[in-house]
Amino acid sequence: MKRFLILAACSLATGAIAGHELDDRDLTNGQSLYVEHCASCHGANLEGQPDWRMPNENGVLPAPPHDETGHTWHHDNQLLFEYTQLGGEEALAARGVTGFASGMPGFGGALTDDDIWDILAYIRSTWPERVQEIQAGRNPPHD
């Protein structure tokens, strides 16, 4: 039940930005930054950590995959950005989800907003077109 509530809360858009923040990004920069800041947990091939759906002894879920087998594409752009910038617990708390132990740190102090968007665009670029289209539909319409 707790997972359902978290997923439901995560699907609520904050309304801050239209749905096309990942378009026309620097994918080369995104890939380089992913290797530098993300691959140690999420895998060089975006494969995530083993047993990523099962909490460890501290109640923290291992890093999920960012390829099409994971759940990254189930979320709107703004949540993905906030999760990366603020860290998991703070991003979820901003959406009303408290008490969730997340191992995801915030990178807002180490990466610029454009860097974060470049990383997210790189991740999206690895998904099959069908998955990219599904994820794009999770964002508010573009004005």
3D architecture notes:
With 143 residues, the chain is an all-alpha fold. The protein is built from seven helices and no strands. The chain has helices at residues 2-10, 27-37, 39-42, 77-86, 88-94, 113-125, 129-136. Helix 2 packs across helix 6 (113-125), helix 4 crosses helix 5 and helix 4 (77-86) crosses helix 6. The longest helix is centred in the C-terminal third of the chain and has 13 residues, at 113-125. The N and C termini lie far apart (36 Å). The model is unreliable at 1-19 (pLDDT under 50).
The low-pLDDT segments are 1-19
Which structural category do the helix and sheet elements fall into? Answer: mainly alpha
Rg over alpha carbons: 14 Å
Which word captures the global form?
Answer: globular
Distance between the termini: 36 Å
Annotation field: number of helices: 7
> How helical, in percent, are the residues?
40-55%
Mean pLDDT: 87
Run of helices and strands: HHHHHHH
Count of distinct strands: 0
Q: Determine the strand fraction and express it as a percent band.
A: under 5%
Largest sheet: none
